[in-house]
């Protein structure tokens, strides 16, 4: 008899800044919520160093409280059940003065940050945890730190000897979200062919080896179809209006093209066992649940 996972099934995603949850995991969060899986987002910083890209008139409100409201709207769009702030300050891009701020996530004591996150893990008891890959997706110090802190926190949460509140909790599967190089290159070429802006400008890459970021396709263990949830993901991204400017390639890509280019989110299983026989694994909860989530019903059905 195989052990049944403790109820309720929970997905917990750790993200450095407000907006990363929607950009990186918006699809899997909405998909999980529709499948009846509890979803939890941990945001490590308040996004203090983000730029008001859209030039929004903030009036008396500062950017941090504005971003807090944008984040709340995005989380509501994705049906996220629970949200935690880890309480650090945005470090800014690598080498910027924000890196040295004593409250910055970059400067934070990794052991202390891991204890804070492990305490949340013990309280929320997620079977599946997702954070950045070890490159921090595109090298931002807060994204790299989110990866490092999550790795430590998952181990710590399970350690019965750790001086933490609540009972130890063993996460079953820990993933890094990442971008598969093959899909990145295909998207870049398709956007240019359609006369649209690519995040890589008009670079003429010879092959995936020329891409400045991304993960070799062979390392992708898990690729989740988020096509039916793409509209929700885009709406959540659009809620972060101050960060995702009008020139965002993701939001500007026509719906039909976006459906083919951004139809999946890609992951690397870092600890735990892949579920089922299919490779890449089609769902973060593969092996933990048997029925795949159904696409949302269209209005009027
Ligand atoms: Zn970020």
Give a short synopsis of this structure.
The chain is α/β, with parallel strands linked by helices and 301 residues long.
Any descriptors?
single chain; 301 residues; alpha/beta; 2 domains; 7 strands; 15% strand; binds zinc ion
Explain what this protein looks like in three dimensions:
This protein has helices at 20-34, 63-78, 110-124, 136-139, 141-158, 181-193, 230-239, 249-252, 255-261; strands at residues 10-15, 38-45, 82-88, 128-132, 173-178, 222-225, 264-271. The chain is globular, with a radius of gyration of 19 Å. It has two domains: 10-179 and 219-271, 3-Layer(aba) Sandwich (Rossmann fold), CATH 3.40.50.10320; 181-214, no CATH class. It is α/β, with parallel strands linked by helices. Strand 2, helix 2 (63-78) and strand 3 form a beta-alpha-beta unit. A seven-stranded mixed sheet has the order 3-2-1-4-5-7-6, sandwiched between helices. It contains nine helices and seven strands, in the order E-H-E-H-E-H-E-H-H-E-H-E-H-H-H-E. It starts with 9 loop residues before the first strand and ends in a 30-residue tail after the last strand.
């Amino acid at each position: 008899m195989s052990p049944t996972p403790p109820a309720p099934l929970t997905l917990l995603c750790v993200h450095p800044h407000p907006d990363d949850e929607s950009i990186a995991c918006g699809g899997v969060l909405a998909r999980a919520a529709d499948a009846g899986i509890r979803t939890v987002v941990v945001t490590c910083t308040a996004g203090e160093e983000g730029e008001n890209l859209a030039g929004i008139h903030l009036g008396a409100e500062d950017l941090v409280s504005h971003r807090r409201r944008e984040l709340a709207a995005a989380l509501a769009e994705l049906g996220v059940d629970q949200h935690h702030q880890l309480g650090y300050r945005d470090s800014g891009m690598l080498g910027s003065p924000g890196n040295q701020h004593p409250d910055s996530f970059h400067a934070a004591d990794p052991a202390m940050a891991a204890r804070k996150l492990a305490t949340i893990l013990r309280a929320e008891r997620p079977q599946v945890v997702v954070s950045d890959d070890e490159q921090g997706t595109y090298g931002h110090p807060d994204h790299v730190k989110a990866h490092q802190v999550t790795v430590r926190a998952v181990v710590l949460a399970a350690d019965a000897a750790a001086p933490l509140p609540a009972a130890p909790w063993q996460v079953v599967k820990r993933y890094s979200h990442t971008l598969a190089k093959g899909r990145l290159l295909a998207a870049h070429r398709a956007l240019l062919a359609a006369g649209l802006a690519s995040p890589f400008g008009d670079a003429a890459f010879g092959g995936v080896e020329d891409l400045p970021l991304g993960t070799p396709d062979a390392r992708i263990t898990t690729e989740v179809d988020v096509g039916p949830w793409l509209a929700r993901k885009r709406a959540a991204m659009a809620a972060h209006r101050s960060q995702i400017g009008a020139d965002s390639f993701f939001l500007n890509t026509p719906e039909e093209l976006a459906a083919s280019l951004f139809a999946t989110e890609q992951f690397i299983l870092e600890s735990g066992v892949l579920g089922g026989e299919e490779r890449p694994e089609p769902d973060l909860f593969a092996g933990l649940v048997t029925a795949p989530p159904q696409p949302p019903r269209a209005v009027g059905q």
